[in-house]
Amino acid sequence: MSKQLGIVGAGTLGIALTRRAAMSGIEVVLYDINDTVLRRALERIRSDLQRRITEGSLPQEALGEIIGRIHPRTHLIDLRMCDCVLEASIEDLRTKKDLFKHLAQDARAGTILATTTPWLSVEAIAQATARPERVLGMHFPHTIPHLKLLEIVRTPHTATESIEKAKGIGKLLSISSIVCQDIPGLVFNRLLQVWCSESLLIAGHSIAPFTQIDRIVRDQLGSESGPFQSMDALGIDNILALSRQLADAHGREPRYSEHFMLKRLVDSGKTGIIAREGFYQYATEKK
Amino acid sequence: MPLKRSSQKKTKSPRPRRRGPKGEKRHTDSPGILIVGDERIVYEYGEILKSRSLDFIAVITGPREHSEKPPLARSPLPKNLPPSIHLVLEVSNLSKEIKKRNLLELEKAIPASVLILSTSVTVSATEQSAWLEHRNRLLGFAAMPGFCLGQRVEVAPTVFTSAEMLEKATLFFQSIGKEMEFVQDCVGMVMPRLMCQLINEAMFLCQEDVAHPHDIDLAGTVALGSSEGPLALGDKISLRHVAAVLRALQRDLGDPRYRLAPILSQLAVSGEWWKHRTMNLEPTQ
Questions:
Q1: What integer pLDDT is reported at residue A286 of this predicted model?
Q2: pLDDT digits 0-9 by tens, B142-191
Q3: Option in A180, A195, A220 nearest B211 (CB)
C-alpha cells in the first residue's frame, strides 16, 4: 500500500489533495515549477489547519506533524521515489503528455502515474509514456468542502495491479472509490449536471421556486441540501463550466445544455457561498 | 371478474359484511374514499388511509406490479358506487388511456360535489380537467411508487379548480398528515421529474458501460447527498413508472433531453436487468 504520494501542481486541487494526504498520515512530495506558488500553497494549508484547530476539530500538536509530512519541491526528479504520482496541473493535453513522458522516465518500476482530469483522454496520456500499464486517471469530483469520491479511470492498457493500487490510495485517504471507463465527464459530473440542469429548468418553467424545490428534495430524499443549495456550495461558476465542458465533449447533447440562469448569476458575480451570494444570500462565512 | 376491495373498519363494533354491487367484499357500509389506478400507488395510499382509520374502496385498473404480493383482481370501475364516497384518488400514471377512461366513468358515477385528486405526473391536471364536465372538482397531485409516504405532497390546482374543492383537498391531506406544496401544473411536477431524469442519466451510464451499476449508484449518492443512488431509486419507483414520466415530459415539452436511454426502455418493458443475464452482473439491491 502506498505511503509516499507525489502531487504535481500546487493549485486548488493540489492543495486539497496534499492536505488530505498529509492529514491521513501520508508523506507528500508537492511539486510545482514555481517556488512562490509552493510557498503560498503551504501557507494556505497551514492557515486551513489553524482554522480547524480553532474550531476544535484538530488538536494543536497535529499541526507540526501534518506540515512535516509535506515536502515542497521544484524538480520533477524528486518525485521518483513516490509510490503514486498524482498530476493536478492545467487542463491541456499536450502539457500533460509531456509531463507524463518525463514522469514515466524518472519513476521507479512500481510507481503508478495518475492524472486528475475528468475531460482529457487518459489513454492518450498513457500512450505518450513508455509504461501505459501504469497510467490511469484519479479524478476527485468537486465536492467542496470535502473530497468524498475518487473516480479511478482505466484505459485499455491499465494493469489491474495499478487499479488496485489506486483503490489502496483511496482507502488511505478515506475516500470511496469507483472504477470507470475513459469517457469525458466520467460518472459524477454527468449525474450532477443532469440533477442541477433539471432543477434549473423546473425553476425556470416556474413550476416551483428554487427554495421550494430544495425543500421538496430534502423531504423526499432525506438529503441535507437541495440542488440549489448544492450549486451554491459547489460554486455556480463551476456548475456552468461543467455544463459547457460536458456539452462540448458529448456533441452538444441536449441533456447537458447550459441554463441561461447560471451565466446570469456568474456574470453578476453571484457564484455561490464563496461570493456570499448565489441562489441564496449568505451573511456569514461558509460553515 | 371480481373487484378487489380493500377497506378498513372505522369502529370496533362488528358490522355485517355484505356484498357490493358487483359481488365485491365490503367491510363497512360507508366507505368515504375511492382509490383507483396503478397497483403500487393504490397499495401505498391504502396503507396511509388504513393507518388513519379511513374507510376506502380500492380498485386496481393498471397492470400487475407487485410480484411479492398476492395478485389483485382487476376490474373496471363499478357502475354503482356507494353514495358515501366523498373523495376519489385517481392514481393511474402508467396509462393515459386508462386514466381518461377512469375519470370519464367516475364523472358519471359520482356526484359533482365529490373532489377528485388525480395524479398529474404523466398527464397534466389541466388536460385531465378538460376531459370532465365538472372541471372544478379535479386537482393534480404527485404520487410515485415508493415515495407516497413522504411528509410533503406536491399539489397542482388547475385554472378550473374551485376554492371549495381546494379546501376539501387541504382538509384531506391534513387528515393524513401531509403538508401540501403547491406547484404549477406540468407533467413531471418537481420530484418525479428530477428523479426520473437522474435515473435516465444513470441508465445512459449503464448503457455506455462507463462504470459498474454499484459504482454509478455510489457516485450518485455523493452527487445528491442522499442515501440512495439513482439506480436504487429506479428500482424503488420501478422503471415502468420512470419511463412513463419521461415519455410524458418528452410528449408535453417536446424537448429531446427527455429521450429515454435504450436500456431503460427495454427494462421498463421486460423488467429484466439486462446485464444480469448477458454479463453476469448483479442488479443493484
A1: 47
A2: 999 999 988 999 999 999 999 999 999 999 999 999 999 999 999 999 99
A3: A180
> Does B219 sit within 8 Å of A149, measured CB to CB?
yes
- Residue predicted with more confidence, A265 or A148: A265
Digit-coded pLDDT (tens) for B84-134: 999 999 999 999 999 999 999 999 999 999 999 999 999 999 999 999 999
CB contact under 8 A, A141 and B201: no
ipTM for the complex shown: 0.93
CA distances from A82 to A147, A158, B11, B191, B222 (A): 22, 19, 75, 47, 29
pLDDT of residue B12: 38
Dihedral Cα A243, A279, B185, B117, nearest 10 deg: 120
C-alpha A57/C-alpha A71 separation (Å) is 24
Residue in the block written with cell 367491510: B27
Which candidate from B201, B202, B220 shows the least CB-CB separation from A255? B201
- Tell me the pTM: 0.89
Q: How far apart are CA A14 and CA A9, in angstroms?
A: 6
Q: How far is CA A180 from CA A101, A137, A154, A163, in A?
A: 23, 9, 6, 11
Question: Following DSSP, what letter does each residue of A114-181 receive, concatenated?
Answer: EE--SSS-HHHHHHTSS-GGGEEEEE----TTS--EEEEEE-TT--HHHHHHHHHHHHHTT-EEEEEE
Residue of A nearest to B184 (CA): A207
The residues of B whose Cβ lies within 8 A of any Cβ of A are: 147, 150-152, 154, 181, 183-184, 186, 188-191, 193-195, 197-198, 200-202, 204-205, 208-212, 215-216, 218-220, 222-228, 230, 255-257, 259
Name the pLDDT band for B66 (thresholds 50, 70, 90). Answer: low
A149: chain B residues, CB-CB within 8 Å: 218-219, 222
Test B218 with A195 for CB contact under 8 angstroms.
Answer: no
For chain A, what is the mean pLDDT?
94
State the number of CA atoms in the 13 A half-sphere of A80 facing the CB: 8
Measure the CA angle with vertex B71, ends B69 and B74; round to 5°. Answer: 135
* Residue A164: other Cβ atoms inside 10 A: 12
Q: For residues A227-254, give the mean pLDDT.
A: 94
Angstrom distance (rounded) from CA A120 to CA A155: 12
Strands A149-154 and A176-181: parallel
